[in-house]
Amino acid sequence: MTRLRWGVLGVALIATRKVIPAMQKGERTIVTAIASRDLARAQAAAAPLGIAKAYGSYEELLADPEIDAIYNPLPNHLHVPWTIRAAEAGKHVLCEKPIALSSTEARSLLEVRDRTGVKIQEAFMVRGHPQWQAARQMVAGGRIGELRAMLGVFSYFNADPANIRNVSEYGGGALMDIGCYLVNTSRFITGREPTRVAGAVERDPALGIDRLTSMLLDFDGMHLAGACSTQMVPAQRIQIFGATGQIEIRIPFNAPPDRPCEVVVDNGEDLFGAGQELLTFPVCDQYTIQGDLFSQAVLEDREVLEPLEDSIRNMECIEAVFRSSESGRWETV
Length: 333
Fold this sequence. Notes:
The chain is of the alpha/beta class. It has 2 domains: about 5-125, NAD(P)-binding Rossmann-like Domain (Rossmann fold), CATH 3.40.50; about 125-285 and about 315-330, Dihydrodipicolinate Reductase, domain 2 (2-Layer Sandwich). It is built from 9 helices and 15 strands. The strands form 2 sheets. The chain has a 9-stranded mixed β-sheet. It is globular. The chain starts with a strand and ends with a strand.
């Protein structure tokens, strides 16, 4: 087998507009089925995407012996239940972030993974993108000197009460939806875990979700300072500061699939950019890369890019940010 055969749970926009079209371009992936709780919706999604099979229930898809792996883009509160059901059906699972609503819930996947022997990964697609791989390598190689700080922002505006991202009991809110990227990438760049965390949360008075969350993660000598919001002008940027230089990732999270990405490396010669070098990364789709890397891990029986243990640690950091916002103190992770 040279390609992994994929089925998709649900017809979420992230799946139909971004992930499926990207995976269909992959060298090791083929999307062969999609399911919805409404057969007509599944068929309507399958036809323009050229997907051969459409199912009117998630159970039917999981029972298909010609499906090797499942992509799970369901709402946050359904990530763990349907990942477990997929694993118990013998399917490998790539699950959208956040993989769970709590670290305890995330840990429940460990037993399922080990018992069933399938691979389960959280879909932080940014880790496979060349710009993040290059940034990590430059930091590790001492390009900017000893690592000192990361600054990050990720925001968009969405105040629609009917939107799933604004439903608190379903895991909505800024930190779970997009702030998780700030936590994840700071851990990725440092290769370490924060020892303590501080957080501040401003909640929407009507929706109850955190519409603005700021965080400070202390990596014992390196700090991440980040802010995420679901009711702010759309923005995203990452700056990585070392003792002798800095790296700026201009579009770190929603890297465009149709144009090159840019990373600026500055040696600190002056404040006007005399020491800047612009690195340009060729056009690529991080969702294609993600699908191919996961498929390769399955086909060659390798470790996935981000194992469950890493996802659990990410959830523990998120929980510490929320605890700190309530206690008003540093919280350990």
